[in-house]
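Discussion board: Methods & Data

I've been asked by a reviewer to show the raw model output for two of the constructs in my manuscript, not just the figures. I'm not sure how much to include, so I'm pasting the format here to get opinions. Each protein appears as its amino acid sequence followed by a line of discrete structure tokens. Is this the kind of thing reviewers expect to see in a supplement, or should I convert it first? Here is construct A:
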Amino acid sequence: MPVDKQLKKTSDNALETPAVSDADLVIAIRENQFVVHYQPKIDTRTLEFVSVEALVRWNHPILGEVIPDKFIPLAEQSDHIHGITDIVLRTALEQSAQWRELGLDLRTSINISGASLEDPDLPEQIYNISRSFDVPADKVVLEITETWQSQDIAATTLILNGLVEKGFGLALDDVGTGHSNFAKLDGMPYSEMKLDKTHIHSATVDEETRQFISMCVELGHEMGMYVVAEGIERQDQWEMMSAMGCDEGQGYFIARPMPGDQIQGWLKRWNTYLGLAENHQRESGPKVNLDEMTGTFHRLNSIFPTKLDI
């Protein structure tokens, strides 16, 4: 049996999720056991809903929902990562096309494994998928983690440039977690920088972290990149990242990841609440803090992502 049903004990006697196997991945890809949820990203200045990140989950028939950290490293050790990437790309771009039919013109960010960047045919493959769903390439952002280490920088640069030539955006993900810091920005055609959540969480209490974020924002803007703060979980984090010049915010404070068919309803509630907040501000004068009022929505929507009625 592929899945080891024996739960492992940790040092503190807590139960670990059983490890998945290569055979499990083969079955998962063949039966398409993967689902994609979408997490909204908000413009910090206008509070406009501008984009989503596509996040894959594995609906394992025995283990239930398995997060990427539990299976992506295993998939990257074989060609299985390419099968998963293909499923996520097709699912996310089909959903993007459906949103466009509803009038939602969103950018969709999709995570690409470093292992996939070893394939010289990758730009053409992704372009063909986006074209098959009639999704413009400039509405697709491909996220590459900063911790990824290329074995052939020159070849990888050609592939990244090929993606940009096709019109796709490129995001350097998890900035601040890699060993090379900003070395990967040199000569690479990134259009977006995503600050890792660990820095967002510590920025409100640590001056050194704030200086690091400030440096990232300044450098990113000098290089013509959007700067995204991910993992925002509290209002003070949201306000600080906005004040420090981050262009977009993402995290549980804004919204939890949700199925694609729930995005339109979430946006309706979001826009309704913003309209009420703006009207209240005009009627009550400068004492009303719009950020505080929208913060109330963020907190409630994080708890009740599909049931909050305004």
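Construct B, same format:
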Amino acid sequence: MTNSTIRYALILLALVPLTVQPCTSVIVSGNATADGRPLMLKHRDTDDQQNSVRLFCGERYAFIGLVNSTSPDTEVWTGTNEVGFSIMNTASYNFREDSLPDVQMDREGELMYRALSICVTVSDFERLLDTCAKPMGVEANFGVIDAHGGAAYYEVNNFRWIKYDVNRIPCGYRVVTNFCEAGRREDYQGWDRYCIASEVMSAEWTPEVDHRFFFERLSRNTTECNGNRIPRKITSASIVIEGVRAGSDPLQTVMWTILGNPLTHIAEPLALTDYMKHCGKHEMGGNAAAKAAKPRTVARIRNTGLDRKKEERLRKAFLRRHYGEVVFP
């Protein structure tokens, strides 16, 4: 993020009427982290405050995903699968180029469910976008990382998509809220949160930081811009997916998860490898037993309060369980 871009964003704040719109996100390329693992934040804002994480035994691959607890088991709003493919989205309000009835829109959760079921790489996701029936019923930014070094954002509407390869961005990361750069500038939304997140990343990001940086400096950051801030009353969850270095075991992917408002709830580490047994024998291409397995809730909102000592104990216990004796930063 350049200083000139941030200044331009601040100017637009004075010109564009602001409304409350959901979700703030960041992807950091593995090229910009000390351990080579990409990082992906989704800070979720939604009217549906009852969120949980479920295990799905998909068509080809098992995956865990953030869901609306009362919604059908065909939608996921952030998730990661057994081959290290991870995806999230933020809503966009300026990239639609058709008059499709609203009742046929808002299918982003279905698209991400499908992607987690069958995709291995960012290229697979691109093929999915190309082959989906049109119109797709979406208007969004999709963020994707994989276990082969892929890290990208996609601006997608009903008929076309544009890719932004995070690996090619000089600073090594990209901040996205609720507009598409290729869309109508007069309909940009989320500039306030975009500016806050961009300022923090530009001033404070270093390759040595980890998922905790996103929770503390973004999801729990109460800095205001034009009267708005990143954590809000409609914030329902914050997820940081820590991918793996290219070529490493994809099951080492970690989904650091805050269910509930990050100002009042703590992060819980989730790894798909802890739940794979519930899908039975799960081979590439799927099998009857896996397909028949019902989704299973693996995490739900707990009324723990913001207990940072407990949050740190959970982090250290998880790292010991999965990595043995480690030196804790």
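Answer (T.O., handling editor elsewhere):
This is acceptable in a supplement if you add a one-line summary per construct. For B, something like: The chain has one domain: 3-323.
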